[in-house]
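Final paragraph of the annual report: two paired records, presented back to back.
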Amino acid sequence: MNNQMGYDGRHGNRLIGAVGASDKLKDLVLKAKDYENFTFYDDVSGKELPKELTLKARQTEMKQVYAHNKVYYNVPLQKCDDITGEEPVGTKWLEINKGDEDDYNRRARLVAPKES
C-alpha cells in the first residue's frame, strides 16, 4: 500500500499515509528531503505548486488537525477491524492556491476521499 500511495502521489519518501510513521505529535514535522522527487499540483487548476509553500500549508493543517484538535493517535489496524468490522478510512491531501501565481495563498486539507 505504501508503494502504491507513493506512485499515486499521495505522499513522499519514508512516509506512511498522510504523515510520518510516528505516534508522537512533536514528530509530525514534514521534511523537504522526504519530498525531493515529488511534485505538487493544484487540485482545481492542475498547475504545479511551489514545494516549499505546499509543505508549509500541509504542516499548518497537521498542526491544526492533529495537535490543536487532538484527533490523531496511533492504534493498531486490527483494532479498527475488531471494533467496526471495516478497514480504516483512507486519506489524501487536497491542495489549492487561493491566490494567483504572483501572490500564492496555499491551502492544504487532509480529507477522506469519497469512495466510488
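The closing record of the year follows.
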Amino acid sequence: MNKSFINLINKLFEARQTAHNEHLRTRKYSAHKALQGFYEDINEFIDEIVEVYQGEFGIVEFGTNIKVTEVDIIQYLETLGKVLKSANAALKDSHSHYKNILDEMTALTYRTVYKLKFLA
C-alpha cells in the first residue's frame, strides 16, 4: 500500500493547492467561498489519513513536487472524486479505517462540485 498511498497523498496535496489557486483566481464570491471550504477541509482529511497511516506503518517520506496550472476546477474535482472512489474500492476490508476517511474526502469533493455548479 505504500507506493499507492504516497501517490494518493501527492494527488491530494495537488488538489489542495489547485483549489487554493482557483479560490484566489475566481471572480465569483460563491466559488471563492466554496473553494476555500474545500482546501481548508481537505487539508484536515489529508492530515488525518497520513497520521493514521503512519501510526500503523511508520513515517513515510513524500517528497512532493507539485506542479499546478490553471484548470477547469469543476472537471478537476470530478476527476478527483473518481480517483478517491477508485482508491477506496482498491482497499481491503481490513483497511476500513482508511475507507471512512476516503468517503469523507469524496463527499467533500462532490459537495464542492455541487456548490460550484449550482450555487455559483
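The chain has a mean pLDDT of 93. This concludes the annual technical report; the extension proposal builds directly on these records.
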